[in-house]
Design a protein that fits this description.
CATH architecture: 3-Layer(aba) Sandwich
Helix content: 40-55%
Bound molecules: NADP nicotinamide-adenine-dinucleotide phosphate
Strand order of the largest sheet: 3-2-1-4-5-6-7
Number of domains: 1
Structural class: alpha/beta
Distance between the termini: 45 Å
Strand content: 15-25%
CATH class: Alpha Beta
Length: 246
């Protein structure tokens, strides 16, 4: 039975991914900050076939909870996780973030500072046992800073770079790191946006994540077509890119 740690388990993408692990009979340790939502997700996963489901309530921006929740996860799962999925994140709105430094710092704390702190602890545990997969959900937004979401893009660029470095440090020791870069996904995070045909469902992204874990991919764009789109976006000269209203 696979031991799966889900950090930010109430995220729509995390929940869809956890459902696939439940279908495989995995043992799940779920962490999120909203107790009622977390209980609903845990109950649902239990009836979907999970071998075991435990829930832990924590605001993950409070770094003082990290060591405690990882210890609780290892106790409940009977050892370090086989897969640790870090899914929580915050988009914020550019209109606010461009003018409010506190809101900008909050997004950086949620998407970069807390994930780096938490995965540093997870990495140390997996390094010790010489196995396991760390899955970090970053974003295509981290591939190039846009005027429409400079702070979010910066936070995801930092997280992508961290995951790349972590992968390079850990692979020789048997620990794998997967960077997930979704494009636009129809979840509560994007509820305010007008939906286009480029939007994917959380279920589609979840299937892509599990397939990437199974084949030990390093970086996956989900859906796949974001890889060539972002290659083109990155190739644009800055003097042209800065003129785009995106
Ligand atoms: N949706 C997209 O288009 C898209 C595209 C690219 C990347 N992503 C990334 O995918 C990941 C999952 O997002 P999603 O689309 O599934 O959106 P979502 O359903 O809105 O999930 C975001 C989750 O993050 C949690 N969270 C935020 N701050 C937290 C904190 N301090 N402590 C604990 N949990 C916290 C939220 O909990 P609460 O419900 O309690 O607030 C929520 O469960 C995020 O990292 C996001 O940046 C999303």
């Amino acid at each position: 039975m696979k031991r799966v740690l889900v950090l930010g388990a109430t995220s729509a993408i995390a929940e869809a991914t956890a459902r696939l692990h439940a279908l495989r009979g995995g043992a799940l340790f779920l962490v999120a900050r909203n107790p009622a939502r977390l209980k609903a997700v845990a109950d649902d996963l239990a009836v979907r076939g999970a071998g075991r489901v435990e829930a832990f309530v924590a605001d993950l921006n409070d770094l003082s909870h990290h060591a405690e929740l990882l210890a609780a996860a290892e106790t409940a799962l009977g050892g370090p996780p086989d897969v640790a999925l870090l899914a929580y994140g915050s988009l914020g709105t550019a209109v606010v973030l461009d003018r409010d430094p506190d809101a900008a710092v909050d997004v950086l704390n949620t998407n970069l500072v807390s994930p780096v702190a938490l995965l540093t602890l997870v990495a140390a545990r997996l390094e010790k046992v010489g196995r396991g997969t760390i899955v970090g959900i970053s974003s295509v937004a981290g591939d190039r800073g846009r005027g429409g979401n400079a702070v979010y893009g910066a936070s995801k660029a930092g997280f992508t770079a961290f995951l790349s470095g972590l992968r390079a440090r850990l692979w020789r020791g048997g620990v794998h790191v997967l960077t997930v870069k979704p494009g636009q996904v129809d979840t509560p995070m994007t509820a305010h946006m007008t939906k286009s045909r480029l939007f994917a469902t959380p279920g589609l992204v979840a299937r892509g994540i599990l397939a990437a874990v199974d084949r030990q991919a390093d970086v996956v764009y989900l859906p796949w077509f974001w890889r060539p789109i972002l290659a083109a976006v990155r190739a644009l000269p800055e003097r042209i890119f800065k003129q785009l209203r995106i």
